[in-house]
Design goal:
- About 50% of the residues lie in helices and about 20% in strands.
- By secondary structure, it is an alpha/beta fold.
- α5 runs parallel beside α9 (about 255-260) and α6 (about 180-190) packs parallel to α7 (about 215-225).
- The mean pLDDT is about 85.
Length: about 425
């Protein structure tokens, strides 16, 4: 029986299928030393993983670097590489496609880190809805860190430079090794009771073992339960801890945390001056606007004010009064002239009347004297004094006829010096000449 003949590509394909079809090769973790390391401009990393017994080629694609690599690799680094074994058919070579690379000896810690990260995320401790906003103008700043480390010095320098009026309240805590977790929790709880503006929790860089106290679940819970806003500033920019995800704000370094916590005092003063100037302009413009409006209203009020109307009326009355006085004076002057003329006329009439009255009186006096003489000549008294008498009855009624009396009537005969009482004995009627 003849043997089957394969092409090179067929053999490479069979080997590929055999290796990649084996589930054991789909997720392997290989321990070794980095060599032939090359960071490509494309973002991929090419390297070899070797030990005393052999070498295997490896590659980490750019898409796997963000979550799979947390440090800068160098030739000679002892690492643990997790990934899958695959075959590159054109070269007929198998290689390791890395999905995660950690330093040797800390793989278990990274595994615990990832497990706790997933657990706390599912509990909601990372949710943005629970993160408290940082105060814009923090002046009282708490710090939980080592009192002798470089971190506290960096924090003091940054805060002192940015705002010399800010106060730092340090809780000296162990931030590495056994017992560090409890110190950090105690520091958070203690400073939270002081009603500070913000709390910084952190330390400088180090290995994952050095930073592990910030990956403890109890520390994460203390940060989450704290009422004061917390900034996490642990390690360097490439270092991430559980505290970073739970804190209200993550800073790349302790110095960055200090910058986030404080405001630049000089900028604050400049901004205050700008606000002051703006506010002053606004107030002055408002005052000017209100003053102009008040002046306009004052003019309107004056225009329609009863006092103004009264004053206008008063002025009009005074004007009319003056006009009237002028008219009256003019009228009076005219009337005075007329009155004087009339007075002269009346005086003339009066003189005339006096003359006429005097003439009339003289005439009347003459007539009176003439009538008096006539009356005297006709007066019964004169006749009586000349020997004549007149007769009346009892009632004083004149008796002018014999028919007015009867025999026996009493009569009165009035003479010049008295009255004679007589009684009628008889009457005789006869014609008297000239009667």
């Amino acid at each position: 029986m003849e043997k089957e003949i394969y092409t090179v590509g067929q053999i490479n394909n069979k080997i590929k299928n055999l290796i990649e079809g084996d589930k054991e090769f789909n997720n392997v973790c290989i321990k070794g030393e980095i060599s032939n390391l090359k960071y490509h401009s494309s973002g991929h990393i090419y390297f070899s993983l070797k030990d005393s017994s052999g070498v295997i080629r490896a590659v980490m694609f750019k898409s796997s670097r963000l979550n799979g690599l947390k440090f800068q690799m160098s030739d000679g680094d002892q690492v643990l590489v997790t990934g899958r074994i695959g075959v590159y058919e054109p070269a007929g070579a198998y290689q390791l496609y890395a999905s995660k690379i950690t330093r040797d000896g800390i793989g278990l810690l990274y595994q615990r880190f990832e497990q706790l990260k997933v657990e706390l995320k599912e509990m909601g401790l990372f949710d943005d809805m629970y993160k408290k906003p940082l105060p814009r103008f923090a002046l009282n700043i708490g710090v939980v860190t080592s009192p002798t480390g470089a971190a506290i010095q960096d924090i003091k320098n940054v805060i002192g430079r940015r705002n010399p009026y800010a106060s730092i309240y340090l809780y000296p805590a162990q931030v590495q090794g056994e017992g560090a977790m409890y110190d950090i929790i105690s520091g958070i709880n203690y400073l939270d009771q002081m009603n500070l503006d913000v709390i910084i929790v952190g330390r400088g860089g180090g290995s994952i073992e050095d930073l592990w106290c910030f990956n403890e679940k109890e520390v994460a819970q203390a940060i989450f339960n704290c009422n004061t806003p917390i900034i996490s500033g642990v390690g360097h920019e490439i270092d991430f801890t559980i505290a970073d995800f739970v804190a209200d704000k993550r800073a790349a370094t302790p110095s960055a945390a200090a910058e986030i916590a404080t405001f630049l005092y000089d900028d604050y003063l400049s901004q205050v001056e700008i606000y002051k100037s703006t506010l002053k302009n606004i107030i002055e413009n408002k005052i000017t606007e209100k003053r102009n409006k008040a002046d306009n209203l004052e003019q309107i009020i004056k225009q329609f004010s009863p006092l103004n109307n009264l004053k206008t009326k008063e002025e009009k009355v005074n004007s009319l009064k003056v006009s009237l006085e002028n008219i009256m004076n003019s009228k009076l002057d005219g009337e005075k002239k007329k009155l004087d003329n009339r007075r002269l006329y009346l005086d003339s009439i009066s003189d005339t009347m006096k003359n006429l009255m005097s003439a009339k009186l003289d005439n009347c006096k003459h007539k009176f004297e003439m009538y008096s003489q006539q009356l005297e000549s006709l007066s019964p008294l004169k006749k009586i004094s000349g020997g004549y008498a007149f007769v009346t009855d009892d009632n004083g009624k004149n008796i002018v006829s014999v028919d007015n009396v009867s025999s026996g009537d009493d009569i009165n005969i009035v003479v010049n010096d008295g009255k004679i009482i007589a009684k009628v004995e008889n009457t005789l009627k006869e014609e008297i000449y000239g009667s």
